[in-house]
Amino acid sequence: MIASSTLQCLFVTLILFLHAVESNKPESDQGSVGACSGVPGIPGSPGRNGLPGRDGLKGDDGMKGAKGDTGPKGSLGQRGSMGPIGIKGEKGELGPQGINWKQCVWKRDDDTDTGLIQECVFKKRHSSTALKVAYAANMRVQCSSGGCCGRWYITFNGAECSGPMTIEGVVYLYSSNDNPLRHREIEGFCENIPSGLIKVAVRVGNCQSYGVSDRYSGWNSVSRIIIEEYPQSHT
What is the pTM of this model? Predict the structure, then answer.
C-alpha cells in the first residue's frame, strides 16, 4: 500500500504539470516537478576489492641514535667440568739454545793408585737426554814384575754407568823396565741419568784379575774432563 504522503506528492506534481502545460511554460516549473522523492531502492551488492597499489618510495634513513650506556657486568658463570686428558706428544729434542756442556781442567801430578782423581759437577737440564763424558790425561802403570794393569773409569753420583755400559779405559804393562807416561783419553755416552746436579768423577782402580800397582795420572801436563748433554739415542 502506497503511503498517504507519497500520494499527496504525486497529486501535487500532476497539478503543477498540467498548469505548466496550460500556460505553455513547462520550463518554468521543471524544478518543481521533481520535488517529491522516490521510494529508496534496494542497496546494491558491494563492489570487488581493487588491486593492491604499488609500493611507495623508500624513505630516507633516520639519524643515528645516541650510544647507550654499558650495562652492568654479569656474574661469573659456573666452572665447567674438566675435559679429557690429551694424547701424550712425541719426545722433543734439545732446542735452539745449543748443547749444554762443561769443562773441568787442572794441572797436577797425581799418584793416586786407587780412588778419586777429580770430580766435576754438571747441571743436567733434561731427564730424557744422555751425557757424553771424555777424560784426557797422561796415564801410566808401573810394577816391579811383569804384568800390571790400571783401570780409569767414570762415575755419576758415585755409581758407574749402566745405560748402556760403563765408560772406562785400561793401561797394561808387561815389562817392568818401562815407564809409559803417555797422553791417553777415554770417553763414552751414558743414558738414563735424571736431571739436576750430577757429580761426574774420574777414578782409578784395579783391572780384573790384577792387584794394586803404581799408577800415575796427569804427569807434567793438563788434565781435563769434558761433559756434554745430548738427545738420548733409541738404538
Answer: 0.58
